[in-house]
Design a protein that fits this description.
The chain is mainly alpha-helical. It is built from six helices and three strands; from the N terminus they run H-H-H-E-H-E-E-H-H. It starts with a helix and ends in a 15-residue tail after the last helix.
């Protein structure tokens, strides 16, 4: 059997499930129609075949725990800033080095940062290897470094859970250089 077909089989199954869900009825005719449409779509509009995403259960659980704790703590920071300072709450844009240039990891990290109410990604400069992260509650250089370290930890946890083995080894071995080392932005 053709290995390309086998590698595209999850796409066909996924599209068939979407087809059945859209019809809202599970019947042999709907499933057969879904398979035919899915095969036609996969043949006419082939998606690039990506390497399988490795999933490591223990690092994945550590990532989920980290995100849950970060969501709670970020919620507390946002509540404190909003109730204490209102519209005068301090915030800043922080440059954080990228641990890896992987688009898959960048997508997951940006999603993880979007889950927390305190911070989100404004821009990813892949050419320079820098994340620009907006964060609330920036009153000192220590706050800036704390957020920078949290984003670096999130990147490392995503890489540990889902990264390529080479990325995992690199993320453990080296500490990324400070972005914009000649010019660091402080709180605004």
């Amino acid at each position: 059997m053709n290995t390309t077909f086998i590698r595209r089989l999850p796409q066909v199954v996924g599209l068939t499930l979407v087809w059945v869900a859209l019809w809202g009825v599970l019947s042999p005719k709907i499933v057969l129609g879904g398979v035919l449409v899915a095969v036609a779509v996969v043949l006419m509009f082939p998606l690039p075949l990506l390497d399988r995403l490795p999933v490591r259960p223990w690092p994945f659980l550590r990532l989920v725990g980290f995100l849950l704790v970060d969501m709670v703590l970020s919620g507390i920071v946002v509540a404190h800033q909003t109730l204490s300072y209102g519209p005068r709450a301090r915030s800043g844009i922080i440059a954080v080095p990228m641990v890896t240039r992987s688009g898959r990891v960048a997508t997951m990290v940006a999603g993880g940062l979007a889950l927390t109410p305190r911070s989100f990604v404004l821009q990813i400069d892949r050419r320079r290897g820098v994340w620009y992260v907006y964060a609330l509650g920036m009153t000192s250089a220590a706050d800036v470094e704390k957020v920078r370290e949290q984003v670096l930890t999130l990147q490392r946890r995503v890489i540990a859970a889902f990264g390529h083995p080479d990325e995992v080894a690199r993320s453990r071995a080296e500490r990324p250089a400070h972005p914009l080392s000649e010019k660091t932005e402080g709180p605004s």
